[in-house]
Write a structure and sequence with these properties.
Layout (H helix, E strand, L loop, with lengths): L2 E8 L4 E5 L2 E6 L4 E3 L2 E3 L5 E5 L2 H15 L15 E5 L3 E6 L5 E7 L4 E3 L4 E5 L4 H7 L8 E5 L14 E8 H14 L3 E7 H9 L7 H5 L2 E6 L2 E5 L7 E3 L17 E6 L10 E7 L2 E7 L14 H5 L1 H11 L10 H8 L3 H12 L4 E4 L4 E4 L8 H4 L2 H11 L3 E4 L2 E5 L5 E7 L2 E4 L2 H6 L7 H17 L3 E2 L2 E2 L1
Parallel strand pairs: 3-12
Antiparallel strand pairs: 1-13, 2-3, 4-5, 6-10, 6-12, 7-8, 7-11, 8-9, 9-20, 14-18, 15-16, 15-17, 18-19, 19-20, 21-22, 23-24, 24-25, 25-26, 27-28
């Protein structure tokens, strides 16, 4: 697995302090992106939390996921959560060390009482002493939140006093991209009142990684709750590795409802799903990969967008129009960019591969953020994409109507069939996954060559005419 060492530096540790007027939670920020460019320690908010105990539990849940490996539990990994200021809310995000669980706490405007929320993205320090202090937050004392340094002075030449170095796997970065592409196909499938949510979540297995061994579980709406089913019936939602929802237990007693999201069921194969705890002034969402042993990084949902040269050009144009919007309006963005909504969506997928957009299932909309590390390598280190480009460069692809023939590096010939825009292949990858984990390298190569041929056939407009 390709990985690098990610250095995250802070001027001081985040702390929870007590004072005569209540408690003060100071979350320290690292280097990040802002509308005015990169900043060493950006400041996003200073004010009170309207539900301090709930916010503390939600932040701990996000930190729990960052420190967890739900598969191969003997290995530990932890990266500080990412915080984004979107002007009207704060978003705290993390990814599990195994790459199969994405967590996000959205602290919305009703949950904040203070200064305006800034714009930008960075890491925020959540250390062990802070975790212990947050776990003791009560419901009575007011809690003042500061995200960023107390003063906006430039860091002294002595530099930051806290530095963490964490292995950052490429598959972890690709997971951020894949999870937002997958979530964009989700719809709300069920909403449980709090009593039913408590009953359902507390009845789930929460240990031992049993979900990975017993296969996918399914649930289906039944009255005001959910009931298990052995089949992927229409309207069902996959619950892969139910023990991975354990972080929701942090906030369960504060929740007002549980919302469940998933894609339309088209077969028996396991799918990803999202589970959202509705909280006073905020939301905590966990998105689960299709299997506890299967991270988001290999799902292949971004490959088509990465393979399209026009998507790269469109992404450059769309990127300059983003302004840390909490909710990206595709129609408005299309009008501003002079592109079709379909091309804007493809551009957003492309931007998602470098962590520049996420997807909010509750609002069914993309949002702008900039991950505070080198996520551009996601494309460079995607093996299927690299292999497909190599096949095209070697002239290994031949087209004959709806059939594409690809001569692989080992001399084997694979046939790729195009049926109404859906590609299938004769290779082992396709036989194993049937398109459930994105296109194989041969299908990607054929799609690249077809797009190139189509562009060559397009008429060129010169002085109002067509040549």
């Amino acid at each position: 697995m390709t990985r690098s060492l990610q250095a995250v530096a802070y001027r001081r540790p985040s702390v929870l302090e007590s004072s005569a007027g209540g408690r003060r939670l100071g979350l320290e920020t690292s280097r990040g992106a802002t509308p005015t460019g990169a900043a060493d320690h950006p400041r996003f908010f200073a004010g009170f939390l309207t539900s301090p105990q709930v916010a503390s539990a939600g932040l701990l849940a996000v930190a729990d996921v960052a420190a967890a490996r739900y598969y191969q539990r003997q290995l530990r990994a932890s990266l500080d959560p990412v915080v984004t200021g979107n002007g009207d809310r704060l978003r705290f995000e993390s990814f599990s060390g195994c790459g199969g669980v994405y967590a996000r706490l959205d602290v919305l405007a009703p949950g904040l009482d203070g200064d305006e929320v800034g714009h930008g993205t960075t890491n925020v320090d959540v250390n062990n002493p802070l975790r212990e202090a947050l776990s003791r937050i009560g419901s009575d004392d007011p809690l003042h939140l500061r995200v960023g340094p107390e003063e906006l002075a430039v860091t002294t030449s002595a530099g930051p006093v806290v530095e963490k170095k964490v292995p950052l796997p490429d598959r972890w970065l690709r997971g951020f991209a894949e999870s937002q592409v997958i979530a964009a196909d989700f719809d709300l499938r069920a909403e449980l009142p709090v009593a039913e949510a408590v009953r359902f979540l507390r009845a789930l297995p929460h240990g031992g990684g049993q979900g990975a061994r017993s296969g996918p579980r399914w649930v289906v709406p039944a009255g005001r709750g959910l009931r298990p089913t052995t089949r992927a019936v229409p309207g069902a939602v996959c619950l892969p590795g139910p023990e991975r929802l354990i972080a929701l237990l942090r906030v369960l007693r504060h929740a007002t409802a549980l919302r469940v999201y998933g894609p339309a069921v088209t077969g028996a194969a396991a799918t990803a799903s999202a589970w959202e705890a509705v909280l006073p002034g905020m939301r905590l969402t966990l998105t689960l990969s299709p299997d506890a042993s299967r991270g988001f990084s290999g799902e292949g949902g971004v490959l088509d967008a990465l393979a399209a040269d026009e998507a790269a050009e469109d992404a450059e144009l769309v990127s300059v129009l983003l302004a840390w919007e909490p909710r990206i309006d595709i129609a408005d963005l299309a009008a501003s960019a002079g592109l079709t909504p379909e091309r804007v969506r493809a551009a957003l997928v492309r931007l998602g591969t470098s962590g520049r957009v996420g997807y909010d299932t509750a609002e069914a909309a993309y949002f702008h953020r900039e991950l505070p590390y080198d996520a551009e390598r996601v494309e460079r280190h995607n093996p299927r994409l690299r292999s497909a480009r190599a096949l095209v460069a070697a002239g290994a692809v031949a087209l004959d109507g709806a059939i594409g023939t690809v001569t692989a590096e080992d001399g084997h010939v694979h046939r790729v069939r195009d049926e109404a825009g859906i590609l299938s292949c004769s290779c082992v990858w396709w036989a194993r996954y049937r398109g459930g984990r994105g296109p194989c390298k041969h299908a990607l190569a054929v799609r690249m060559v077809r797009r190139g041929a189509a562009l060559e056939r397009e008429p060129v407009r010169v002085d109002g005419g067509v040549r």
